[in-house]
């Protein structure tokens, strides 16, 4: 009975003391997760069991009270001020010039998770907060750092811009054989790092191209000119027109249209085309009489025997010729053997013809005067 009376008296006194506190607790509650205080009707309920509370007091346990939402949290006071770890996400190891990405970070739990972005080479990679932009070819390291010292870095290689297309400017008209044309090529995109071009021809017999793009058209036909930049190529098909041959002229090397040869001698003939860039597949040569002179397919004439001959060159239905004369003695050395005086022998060389005469020196003189060449060498005795 004494214990009951004590509890009752203690309870009445406690209620008098706690009524203002309980009323305040009802209308002012603190969110354990956010640490914020709300006034008015709280979503949390508060229960108070007097007997249990008194039992806890008498047992020495001063911790009592519960919320329907669970036990009270330690709140933000247990978090560190700054993260201990920082990890960058969303930045590739390789980028093309002009590429831009939005990066992000993962941090360990902290009150302040803000980071500062930076690049050690802004000329290559620019870091504008978390916007990362590739500026030029090279390598740069991007870093995200917290105020507490934790950081994360990513090394980025910015690749030079490669070409995606090469275009050769088309010709305004079909070129003629024998003409030249300067080609040009454009490389895309405009910021391609290396715009150098290598030129080649699919058929140098029809067209040749140098490394400046200058094309020399050799003969009629179709050819493909190729422009290469790195692994990218562009091409242009060109049809070279045939230039009609109007006429041709055949002459000796010294420009004459008639020649004279001794048997066994040769003469080189040449052909001049009109126009000079006329399309000619080949030139054929012929002799009107191969018993007098022959001619090969390079225009070289060989004298065979005395007579008159016509040498003809023909191409594309057109022809021209020269006249040749062949003799058996012109330009020859004539050897004359004569009996002089009392039977002595002497040899005279006149026009390559060999004459044997007998008699006196007067007879030798008469033979000299009858030759076609008046030159006579000093006679030398024969052994």
**What is the structural class?**
mainly beta
The end-to-end distance, rounded to whole angstroms, is 186 Å
Rg on CA atoms, Å? 58 Å
Average pLDDT confidence is 77
Tertiary shape: rod-shaped
In terms of quaternary structure, the protein is single chain
Percent helix: 10-25%
Number of strands: 33
Uncertain regions spanning at least 5 consecutive residues: 22-47, 58-76, 330-383
Major beta sheet, strand line-up:
6-13-12-9
Number of helices: 3
Strand content: 35-45%
The biggest beta sheet reads: 4 strands, mixed
Structure description:
- With 383 residues, this protein is mainly β.
- It has helices at 2-27, 50-59, 361-369, and strands at 28-30, 37-39, 46-47, 66-67, 86-89, 94-96, 100-102, 104-107, 115-119, 125-128, 131-134, 138-146, 151-159, 165-168, 180-182, 185-188, 198-201, 207-209, 214-217, 221-229, 232-240, 247-252, 258-262, 266-274, 284-287, 293-295, 300-303, 307-315, 318-327, 335-340, 344-349, 355-357, 380-381.
- The protein has a four-stranded mixed beta sheet, with no helix packed on it. It has a four-stranded antiparallel beta sheet with strand order 22-24-27-26, with no helix packed on it.
- A hairpin with a 4-residue loop joins β26 and β27.
- The longest helix has 26 residues, at 2-27.
- Mean pLDDT is 77; it is low at 22-47, 58-76 and 330-383.
